[in-house]
Amino acid sequence: MRFSNKPFFQLTALASSMALASVVMAQEQVIKIGHVGPLSGAIAHLGKDNENGARLAIEELNAKGILIGGKKVKLELVAEDDAADPKQGTAAAQKLVDAKVSGIVGHLNSGTSIPASKIYNDAGIPQISPSATNPKYTRQGFNTTFRVVADDVHLGGTLGRYAVKDLKGKAIAVIDDRTAYGQGVAEEFEKAVKAAGGNLVGHEFTTDKATDFMSILTTLKGKKPDIVFFGGMDAVGGPMLKQMKSLGLNAKFMGGDGICTTELVKLAGDAMADGQVVCAEAGGVDGALKKGMDDFGVKYKKRFNDDVKLYAPYVYDAVSVMVDAMQRAKSSDPAKYLPELAKTSGYKGVTGTISFDSKGDIKNGSLTLYTYKSGKRDQIAVVR
Q1: Domains of the chain, each with CATH number or no CATH
Q2: Are residues 267 and 214 in contact, defined by beta-carbon separation less than 8 angstroms?
Q3: 3-class DSSP state for residue 289?
Q4: Going by fewer Cβ within 10 Å, which terminus of the chain is more open, N or C?
Q5: CB-based contacts of 108: which residues, under 8 Å, 6+ apart?
Q6: Secondary structure (3-state) at 345
């Protein structure tokens, strides 16, 4: 009688492959990268957009296969919600520090990024913001703070000059939402208007959670402005445009990147006339580099079944730059790769070339001026 050895060999092969898989898994290090943004509240659509950018970068890097120090690693996204609230932002920051993340991409807002940055700095964990524009963020003396977009000095300054020189504004009014971002960009806008010889006729205040602007708009209407600048986000800017229309306040509406979103069209409804809104995004590419940004939009849509709202490509690049620094340092230990991150120079991302200065700001940061026509954002120019 003959006995087959086949089952024995199959079991041996299976055991060997399982053992090999166990060895591979044991060798594969998991690197946690934290992301924080508003996933609840009025600007949750922007927070989710940012998180999606981080998720897409991590999925692609894992699919490609990442080696750090000669060892294969797996990236893991640890996402937290700060609801655009400074107090919740610091709580989220401490949670990520306790989770022993190797790096942070976020926060979305300046008002949450600035207080959270101290927590990350105390823990020695690098933080790259893809969208916080208040100058203070990188001017606190921390060596852990970086950003991949231009700051409010550039943003507000460019818009202020544009209001006077290009739009020929004769009576310019300002409203800000008193957040670190809104107040900061409005102040820089005012400085630039004055420097360009413009005429400021009033400055009113609201909050980032307000819904009724009739009182401040009525006050400004009496001053007959031809331009109203708003320092704040699209969730407030859209309803403000509606109330301007109902009051018959016919003026150009300007703002920074906070209002310069694809969602503004939906939030303003039929209150936005073609060419009425002029805003700037703290970033942007033109010429040959535009194809890379367009390609990103296509794959983002394919993955999430939604259009890019604003800063997803900058988050994508922030994750990629962080991982590139880890690879150059041959380590995901924050203390070891932080010096390499600071040396980042000439990194080719979808948002353009990324190099950091001594403060952690992007060198030669660009701005893109937009208006809206037929319900769509329409690019005016890329400015450096």
Answers
A1: 26-150+287-365 (3.40.50.2300), 153-281 (3.40.50.2300)
A2: no
A3: helix
A4: N
A5: 36, 37, 38, 43, 46, 47, 50, 82, 84, 129, 130, 131, 132, 311
A6: coil
pLDDT band at 282 (very low <50, low <70, confident <90, very high): confident
Any idea which residue has 């819904």 for tokens? 211
Based on its alpha-carbon atoms, the radius of gyration of the chain, rounded to whole angstroms, reads 24
Pairing of strands 277-281, 367-373: antiparallel
The region that residue 252 occupies, defined by phi over 0 for left and psi between -120 and 50 for alpha, beta otherwise, is beta
* Cα three-residue angle 180-258-172, rounded to 5 degrees: 85
Residue 87: both structure tokens together: 């107090």
pLDDT digits (tens, 9 = 90+) for 51-75: 999 999 999 999 999 999 999 999 9
If you average pLDDT over residues 37-53, what whole number do you get? 97
- Split at pLDDT 50, 70, 90, the class of 107 is very high
347 phi/psi in degrees, rounded to 5: -70, 125
pLDDT of residue 1: 46
The percentage of residues in the chain with a pLDDT greater than 70, rounded to a whole number, is 93
Pairing of strands 227-231, 172-176: parallel
